[in-house]
């Protein structure tokens, strides 16, 4: 047999439920305040980190590029490389037909042989005449003429020797050698083409040293200096990081909208927006300390983070 609930019991139950509800609301408010406070603290912490360690994804990998230009003109006899091929320092990249330079060299050597014979005869004549002058068996005019001939031939000989040395140098230039290890790029020529002195045939990318050009906002560059530690990520391999150090910070960029006439060579960094006033960006060069030649490519997108202050002097 069940006992009916009394009014006092019902009132106690209602009071308890109300108390639990108020306690629950209080706990929810406390939790909400904690979450908001934590979000503010985390935001301030992240902002402080970003402020002390600037980060940008407006960065590209770079390496030095040298145009391979022959030092003599002529027809390419043999092309030993292909586009994008890896080469080592000292490899013969291509060979220019040496026949013209060989003929000039042989001609100069023949002239030298003739001059040596003439010079030997002139010296012999001078040596024969000089002892005869005190005895009046010859005249001073004859001796002077013999001396002049020796001097003239000696000067001519020096000129021909210089020509031989120059032509031997030209002949050696017919083999174009890789000045450093790297990769051939922008090769659009074949054997049989005529090349001109000083005009690049293709380019050679120096893969031994890589750097990143990272564009930072002008307010951020105060937190870095040459020697600052940096971390670099390539967009192609975002999980692999590379160490680096700030080599230098750009001191000049071309202002927005300014016509660069005549060309000044000042870098141009495009603003992100053109309808509001945004901070100018300055290029920062970061030398990569542990580049992977198989991953780094010229112009590859990168992310750069300045991790620490510059070393104390």
The number of distinct β-strands equals 12
Overall mean confidence score, pLDDT:
85
Which CATH C-level class of the largest domain is it? Answer: Mainly Beta
Query: Percent of residues in beta strands?
Result: 25-35%
| CATH topology value of the largest domain | OB fold (Dihydrolipoamide Acetyltransferase, E2P)
Structural class: alpha+beta
Distance between the termini: 93 Å
Task: Name the CATH superfamily classification of the largest domain.
Answer: RNA polymerase II/Efflux pump adaptor protein, barrel-sandwich hybrid domain
Biggest sheet strand line-up: 1-8-11-10-9-12
Number of domains: 2
Q: Which terms summarize this structure?
A:
313 residues; alpha+beta; Elongation Factor Tu (Ef-tu), domain 3; OB fold (Dihydrolipoamide Acetyltransferase, E2P); 2 domains; 6-stranded antiparallel β-barrel; 3 helices
Please write out the topology:
Layout: H1 7-52, E1 55-68, E2 74-79, E3 86-87, E4 92-96, H2 99-129, H3 140-173, E5 175-177, E6 182-185, E7 194-195, E8 202-217, E9 229-234, E10 237-249, E11 281-288, E12 301-306
Helix pairs in contact: 2-3
Description:
There is one protein chain. This protein is of the alpha+beta class. It folds into two domains: 53-63 and 206-306, Beta Barrel (Elongation Factor Tu (Ef-tu), domain 3); 66-195, Beta Barrel (OB fold (Dihydrolipoamide Acetyltransferase, E2P)). It is 35% helix and 27% strand. It contains three helices and twelve strands; from the N terminus they run H-E-E-E-E-H-H-E-E-E-E-E-E-E-E. The protein has helices at 7-52, 99-129, 140-173, and strands at residues 55-68, 74-79, 86-87, 92-96, 175-177, 182-185, 194-195, 202-217, 229-234, 237-249, 281-288, 301-306. The protein has a six-stranded antiparallel β-barrel with strand order 1-8-11-10-9-12. It has a four-stranded antiparallel sheet with strand order 5-4-2-7. Strand 9 (229-234) and strand 10 form a beta hairpin. Helix 2 packs antiparallel against helix 3. The radius of gyration is 41 Å and the shape is rod-shaped. The N and C termini lie far apart (93 Å). 16% of the residues are buried. The mean pLDDT is 85.
